[in-house]
Each structure stands twice: as structure tokens, then as C-alpha cells.
Amino acid sequence: MIQPGTPVVFDINVYLDYILAGDGSWPLLPEIPPTTDNAAADAVSLAFAGTFRLYASPHILRNVARVMMAAGQSSRTTVRFAEAIAEMCAFSGGAVLDPDVRDRAIGDHEDNHILSLAADPSVDALIVVSRDRHLLDLGPAWNGRLMMTPRDFVRRVVSR
């Protein structure tokens, strides 16, 4: 179970799995509680349920946009999706913040951005949601933060 207001950070791959997966539902969101086979889409839909506070960073938004464009998405769709992420953060009580990025001695330099956002004092995320092995291999908890796959996150949120 996740307490209301719990601060959460989604890795870039969560947003990309939602919008780029063949079973993605953009621009519609799955129902709450989620009922799709796309755990990333279900996790994103839960941000609108007020169950947790979602945080992102300009780095996350830029990289989501970069990968979407490389995958052939239109500029319009890419901009709208980045705006939707920012709106999700605001709606959930979270925000888009630009943390100081520190080297966290992890195998993938890009993951330093996710961990730095989670550890930023104004975020202090309890949960990082990702399917990235570098992050998940940190163990179930990294510096007091849970590392969870989208599917595990959705199960935990809806198991109230």
C-alpha cells in the first residue's frame, strides 16, 4: 500500500513504454483502477488518482521528447506529451524540478539524473519506478527509496 501524498519519480522508460508501446492508449488514459496489460500506462493513469505526488525534471522531459522524435512521433504529439507529463506532476501535487545532478556511482550515467531527482531535498521520493536494470539492481531500497517496476508499483498502489 502507498500512502496518499507519497513522493514518486518515474524513470524515462515508464513514460516511453506508455506512449510508444503498441498497447498504449495516448491521448486517453486507462481507467482507474487500471485494467490494461501495459503496466506503464496503468502507473501513469494512477498519477491522476491523487494517490501519490509525481515528480519529473527538465532532463526527463527532454529525453522523452528526444526518443519520441527518434521513434517517429510528430512534433505536436511530442510537445503535447511533455506538457501532459508536467500537468500530471502539478495535478498530483508534485512538480517538474531541476535538481543538482551528482555522480551516484551507477553503471549508466543517465540514471544519475533520476537518482538525483529522487534524492533532491524538495522531492525526497520514497519510490522510483523503472524497468532499468541499473536502477532495479540497486536493490529493493536505495538510500531509503524503493526501486520498483511499473507492474509492482501498480500492484502496490491498488492493493489498498
Automatic annotation (TrEMBL):
Domain PIN: 8-134
Keywords attached to this entry: Hydrolase, Magnesium, Metal-binding, Nuclease
Key word Hydrolase present: yes
Cleaved signal peptide residues: none
GO MF annotation: an example: nuclease activity
Superkingdom: Bacteria
InterPro entries per the UniProt record, alphabetical: PIN_dom
Protein name: PIN domain-containing protein
Taxonomic lineage from the root: Bacteria, Bacillati, Actinomycetota, Actinomycetes, Micrococcales
